Amino acid sequence: MTLGTILIPGVTLTHTDTTTNDLGFNEFSSMLLRLTFTSLLLLILVGCSSTGPEYDGAYYRQSVTPEQVADNIDGYKNQNVLWGGILINSINLEDGSELEVLAYPLSSNQRPDLNRDPIGRFLAREGEYLEPLDYAEGRVVTVTGQIARSHSGQVGSAAYIYPVINADQIYLWSKEGSGSKPQIHIGVGVGFGF
Questions:
Q1: Domains recognised in the chain with CATH numbers
Q2: Calpha distance 100→163 (Å, rounded)
Q3: Is 155 helix (H, G, I), strand (E, B) or coil?
Q4: Which helix (H) or strand (E) holds 32?
């Protein structure tokens, strides 16, 4: 006697009664429904959770680019900015560290969007020692800080004016998932018990 069939896309579960107990199938279907609901809820919660830093966009200027600041350092001096990009170089100095960053626009989670065009370079000064192996060339960072001054340097053989910010916070993004798209993986498995 067939008690019922549960249809899941690609899977059909049929329960055949071998005893007179009809309660087993109802318990199984109730458990399967609870498990499905719990899994979906967990997936939604994980998908909605934020990753990375959360800064107050009203406090930090994101609309101004390092290129714009370099062209008019006096007009932007002492303003707080939120910038990010790829580390080009990190140097440890006597009084802290300096990061050279190729800036990119930030995505909604404040991670630099490497799929867009760069928006200039900047130097971030940190009062503490930063480990060069952690802050190595190619790593992605998001930095908050106050515009302090400009610095004349070179990119290759060309002269370049860098805006220098005194960093309040430096967020070093993980090496995994170097793109700015969320990394979500969903798997499906089937198990049998005897």
A1: 2-48 (no CATH), 66-172 (2.40.50.140)
A2: 10
A3: strand
A4: helix 23-48
| Closest to 30 (Cα-Cα) out of 15, 10, 46 | 15
Q: How many CB atoms lie within 10 A of CB 121?
A: 20
Kind of pairing between the strands at 121-126 and 158-172: parallel
Residue corresponding to tokens 């990394």: 183
Instruction: Work out the end-to-end distance of the chain between its first and last CA atoms, rounded to an integer number of angstroms.
Output: 21
Identify the helix (H) or strand (E) that includes residue 31.
helix 23-48
The string of pLDDT tens digits covering residues 37-70 is 565 555 544 444 446 777 776 778 878 999 999 9
Model confidence pLDDT, tens digit, residues 70-122:
999 999 999 999 999 999 999 999 999 999 999 999 998 999 999 999 999 99
Q: Does residue 86 sit in helix, strand or coil? A: strand
pTM over 0.85: no
